């Protein structure tokens, strides 16, 4: 197991390098001059050129990228072009807000999606199954930012039950978490339902029922555990997507997280801030995928035996 974990951690290195190179290339090709943005449109050409030389923007592309990688390996991710502060400290300061949003969305997604999917499979073709499937399709078809605005209009403006923006209390995270979980919860419901339907039709489930086991034991002890592997995969991938997909939600609800920070940095062409933000999310996504693979071993004994053989 430890050897497998070590190999997966080493595999993250080329992935992070590839992500950093792509983002660095995109930022280099986009129009705009960070030095001009920092000094303003009224700055003289001499001042702009002096700042470009100071920031190393006049160096060739590969030289700039290589210098950034060397500094990042040493733990120096640079200072923000626009705010003149260390980018890593700013990201760490904003990360708790994004983590609260992603964790809240994950709790809602799993807490509703998995039970509803199980219920739809057990009561196939019933009214509850039809309602859950229609609701899942509606949630999938609605853009998250539009759904979030609808929640703001209803619960913040009309009913005044919850705040529309801000991040001061837990109440401020209810609407963003529901919005973030809505679309991904729909896919989790469908995935759980389809896997449960496939498992409960297998021979060993019929054997368990023939032996007199009650329905609750058959579903939760025999069927659910074998149907969980694909569901765990979807949950892990969705959690990584939740961390990366908070940009729009944070902008709609005015949350001071990584999303709003990255959007502002992209507008200002703040290369150090954008690069570090994207790499931070990419690293978290890779770590989450590794955690999902480890959880497999505890859910499925067959995978645990393969790890033991290795």
Measured by DSSP, the beta-strand proportion falls in under 5%
**Spans where pLDDT lies below 50 across 5 or more residues:** none
CATH superfamily of the domain at 96-267: MetI-like
Assign the structural class, choosing from mainly alpha, mainly beta, alpha/beta, alpha+beta, or little secondary structure: mainly alpha
Query: In CATH terms, what is the fold-level topology of the domain at 96-267?
Result: MetI-like fold
Report mean pLDDT, rounded to a whole number: 81
Distance between the termini: 8 Å
Helix and strand pattern: HHHHHHHHHHHHHH
**Strands, total number:** 0
Total DSSP helices: 14
What is the annotated CATH architecture of the domain at 96-267? Orthogonal Bundle
Largest sheet: none
Helix content: over 70%
Question: Can you give a write-up of this model?
Answer:
The protein is mostly helical and about 300 residues long. It has a domain at about 95-265: MetI-like fold (Orthogonal Bundle). It is about 80% helix and about 0% strand. It contains 14 helices and no strands. It has helices at about 1-30, 35-40, 45-55, 60-75, 85-120, 125-140, 145-160, 175-200, 205-210, 215-245, 245-255, 260-265, 270-300, 300-310. Helix 8 (about 175-200) runs antiparallel to helix 11 (about 245-255) and helix 12 (about 260-265) packs antiparallel against helix 13. The termini are close together.
């Amino acid at each position: 197991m430890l050897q497998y974990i070590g190999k997966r951690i080493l595999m993250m290195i080329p992935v992070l390098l590839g992500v950093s190179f792509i983002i660095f290339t995109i930022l280099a090709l986009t129009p705009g001059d960070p030095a001009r943005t920092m000094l303003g449109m009224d700055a003289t050409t001499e001042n702009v050129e002096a700042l470009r030389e100071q920031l190393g923007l006049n160096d060739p592309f590969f030289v700039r990228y290589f210098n950034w990688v060397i500094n990042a390996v040493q733990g120096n991710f640079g200072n923000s072009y626009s705010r003149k502060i260390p980018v890593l400290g700013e990201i760490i300061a904003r990360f708790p807000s994004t983590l609260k949003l992603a964790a809240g969305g994950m709790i809602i997604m799993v807490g509703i999606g998995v039970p509803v999917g199980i219920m739809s499979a057990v009561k196939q073709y019933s009214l509850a199954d039809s309602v859950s499937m229609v609701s899942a399709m509606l949630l999938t078809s609605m853009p998250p930012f539009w759904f979030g605005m609808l929640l703001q209009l209803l619960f913040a403006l009309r009913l005044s039950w919850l705040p529309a923006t801000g991040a001061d209390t837990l109440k401020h995270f209810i609407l963003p978490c529901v919005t973030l979980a809505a679309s991904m919860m729909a896919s989790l419901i469908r995935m759980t339902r389809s896997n449960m339907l496939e498992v409960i039709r297998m021979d060993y489930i019929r054997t368990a029922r023939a032996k007199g086991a009650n329905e609750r034991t058959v579903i939760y002890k025999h069927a659910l555990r074998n149907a969980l592997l694909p569901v765990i995969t979807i949950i892990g991938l969705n959690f990584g997507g939740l961390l990366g997909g908070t940009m729009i939600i944070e902008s709609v609800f005015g949350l001071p997280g990584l999303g709003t920070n990255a959007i502002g940095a992209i507008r200002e062409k703040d290369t150090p801030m954008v690069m570090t933000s994207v790499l931070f999310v990419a690293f978290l996504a890779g770590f989450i995928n590794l955690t999902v693979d480890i959880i497999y071993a505890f859910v499925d004994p067959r995978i645990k035996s393969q790890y033991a053989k290795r």
